[in-house]
Structures are given as structure tokens and as C-alpha cells.
């Protein structure tokens, strides 16, 4: 890997474009490297994972709204597919609808380092453009592996959260690079598209604070849509704010660390295999990633803890877990039984209470309003707090991915003063966990979430198409959209309020 230092530069310096981060990202995207076999296998896993969570969310309101907006923008030909619909639509609108479906349940993959990300959010816009432009499965895989490489590099090197900038700012750049790899565009074109994407997808993290709204699902879909539009403009010869990262009125200077910004971004050398996707990991449970290990811990502790005698529970954990999904966020909504699902999946006190009681976690039942309002759950929930433990924060940022920890230590104090303690560093499904996800696990997750939505025969056809993704022709890419009862979905959509389109 080559480490690039990214710093603010005055306009008078006229920083050569070859020394700008956007150009370096574009250069990685446009290099024609042979794909690493393990990276290809993992990319197929993530295509399966995305479809799993997308079909499970088809009748959730934000997904239905996004789908209704998309299907109002039918394509003449060839267009792109939409989960839950027979329509073919303009690719940016397919990316919008499918990106929302993938993100809605907070249930697909994650990568955590200096910042946070869900790199699977790259797949919907890449798949949409691949369909629209007649690319093959091999082309799509090259795009996916490239987008993951770029997003992981940015997430490792540049922290957005410290300045309350939403992580989709890195997603826009990664998707633009993935599209460049998909279409084999010139480096100059991708460079311009990356800069437009960063400029237009920078937003605050209020979408993940306090009373969290449906925009949490829309935010990455918006970034994917914006990246497609940026690539389209760049292909037509339009330029961009430049240098978007290093400029004195640019991203680093005013959104991040300011004039003294100095960020290390490591990118692969020419000829170096693209393997960043292997550092990322998916979710076994539908909740914020930092809750994954704590759900597994709660399930284990719930087997032996006398929950009717709990006086208090303190979760000793990392800075991020404490301040984003814990009591350190100072969000009263995280203790509110009437809070939205989006808020509850960012409340570790709620999640830990339910997982303790049920010794299980379900993407729908665990968030049901009646479940959140159950009196014994509310009573236990109010007894749970988090504290930041410097050791867990250090482990969270360990430079060795195999030693990095996203869990915590739970201290249950009973009404007689006795204490029960246990800890778990990583989720069972993590690559370093007790049961790392493999292809059968991804397929099992798909079949579980598709049950009752996709027939067994259609499930088999989808999994067969995904398994043969490297060999799929352009027309075959439609097989990556599991067949569902679109009439039932349309009946749900018919009850939605109308908008502009």
C-alpha cells in the first residue's frame, strides 16, 4: 500500500491534479487489475446479503415510498430493475429505490475504523448502471471490489464523525469510483465525478441523532443516486469543484480538521490485489453494528441471569458505542418506549434489555411497538447505562483487524448486591468471532428473510444466479432480483399518499 498525506493547500499553490486525493482515488478505480479470487467470493456473498435485507423490507413504508418515486421514472430501454416491482426504471432511480430497501433494516454489512460505513450501499447503484448499460457479471464484480477498496481506504484514513459529518460522504466517492471501474472510464472522467459526488453528498449526522427518522435509510440511497448523476455529467465533459478535498474552501478545510488537516489515506500500489472487501463484515442481527456483539453477549447472559432481581446493568464499552448508541449520546429518545424503530436500533439499552429477556433477536418482532412497551422490558431497560472504557476504545481502534473489538463488558448488579459479569469482544458472525459468516450462512440468512416473500423455487433461482455471478451475461443480471409477489407489493403501495411524480 502507498500512504498519501492529504492536506489543505491554498489556491495559489495550484496543486497538480496528480497529487490530489480525488485523482489518486480515480487512478485506483481505472487501473485494470486482475481480481483477487477471495475478494470475488466475498463480493458474491454481499450481493446475496443485500438481496436478503431488501426483500425483507419491501412493505416497510420508506422502501415503498422510494419504490413509488422510482417507478414513476420508467426507462424507455433498457433501464434497471427495482426490488418488488416488474418495472424497469432510469438507473439513478433504481439506485434510489434499491438502496433504500437494502439500508432500511440496518441489517447488511459494515466497516468500522477511523469512521463508519456500510460498504454494501455501493452495490445498488453499481448494479443499476450495470443493467442499464449492458455490462456483465464480471464487470459488476470489478466495480464492487473497486468501490469497497476505495470506501475502506477513506474510512481508515479520514474521520467524519468527529465533525458530525455523515459517513455517506465517503460512500459517494466510492460509488463514483466503482462506476468508473464498471464502465472503464478515463481517469479524468472519474476524477471529476468523485469531486462532484463528495461535494453533493456531504451532510450532517443529525439523521442519526435524537429522534431518528426514515432518512437514515434514504441517506445512502441519495448518495448512490447522486454518484450516478455525477458520473453522467462527467461523461458529458462537465468539471467539478477542485481540489475538493485539499482546497482552501474545500472539504477538509471547512467540514473536517480545518486548515491544519493532515490525513493518511493508504491506497494499493499498481498490481497490488484489491482485498479491502475482506476486512468488512456483515450483521447477523438487525441493529447498529456495535450492538452485534452485545446482542450475542445478552443472549448468553440471559440464560443464567435472574432478570427479575436486576438492580442495575452497566455496559463498559468503546467511545463510539457509548456516545452513539449508548447513554453517552444524551438522547432521551433512547429510553422512550414510543420511539421509532430507527431510534430503537440505535439504543443499546433497549437492545440489550430485549436480547436478555428473549435470548434472541428478530428484525421485526424485537422492534414491535407492543414489544417496546412491555412493562417488564421498560423497567429493565431503564436500569441499563453505558460508560466509556479507555481499554475498549483502544481495542476498537487496534490497527490489527483481527484484534479489533466492537463489544464490551456487562456488569449486572442484583438486588442483594451480588454481581454477574461477562464480556464479548466481537460478534459471533464476525470474521474473528465464534461462528464467522460463510457462504452457507449468507444463504441461510437469505432464505430466512425471504421466507413467505419469495417462493422456494425463486429462492433457488436467485442463489444459483448469484453463485454464477462471474459468468453472468448482461441479460442474466435480472436474476439478481428475487421474484416476489409483485401484485401484493403493489396493493400495499396503492395506499400510500401521492407526491409530485
Automatic annotation (TrEMBL):
Residues 285-469 form the MmgE/PrpD C-terminal domain. InterPro entries: MmgE/PrpD_sf, MmgE/PrpD_sf_1, MmgE/PrpD_sf_2, MmgE_PrpD, MmgE_PrpD_C, MmgE_PrpD_N. Residues 29-261 form the MmgE/PrpD N-terminal domain. SUPFAM superfamilies: 2-methylcitrate dehydratase PrpD. Belongs to the PrpD family. This is MmgE/PrpD family protein. It comes from Streptomyces catenulae.
